[in-house]
C-alpha cells in the first residue's frame, strides 16, 4: 500500500499567518489555488481565527460562474480551465440558482466512459 509521502503534493501553497485576510483573498485568486495552508515563521501549520471581519474581505473577486442551460461538458471544461472544483450556477440576472461540482458530474462521466448514458442524458 502506498504511503502518504508517495501520493502527496510536495511543497503545497502556503501563506504566512500575519497576512491580512484581504491579501489572502487576492493571492488565492491570483495564484488560482484551492488549498492554502497557513504557516508561522518556522513553516509550522497554524490555526487561523478571524474575528469581526466582513465576509467580503475573504471573498475572491470575479468568481467564475455558469448558467443552468450550459451543458455538463461546458461545466467540466470551465472547471478544468480555471482549475476549480465547483461552479455557482446563476440565471441571466445573476441570481444564484445552484451549484455544480466535480462530484456531481462524476456519475455522468462514469456513464459516458462505461457506455451506460441513455440518449436523453438521464442515467438509469
Summarize the structure in words.
This protein has 124 residues and is α+β, with helices and mostly antiparallel strands. It has two domains: 61 residues, no CATH class; 62 residues, CBS-domain, CATH 3.10.580. The chain has four helices and four strands. The strands form two sheets. The protein has a two-stranded parallel sheet. A two-stranded antiparallel ribbon has the order 3-4. It is flat, with a radius of gyration of 19 Å. The C terminus is likely disordered.
How would you summarize this macromolecular structure in one to three sentences?
The chain has 124 residues and is an alpha+beta fold.
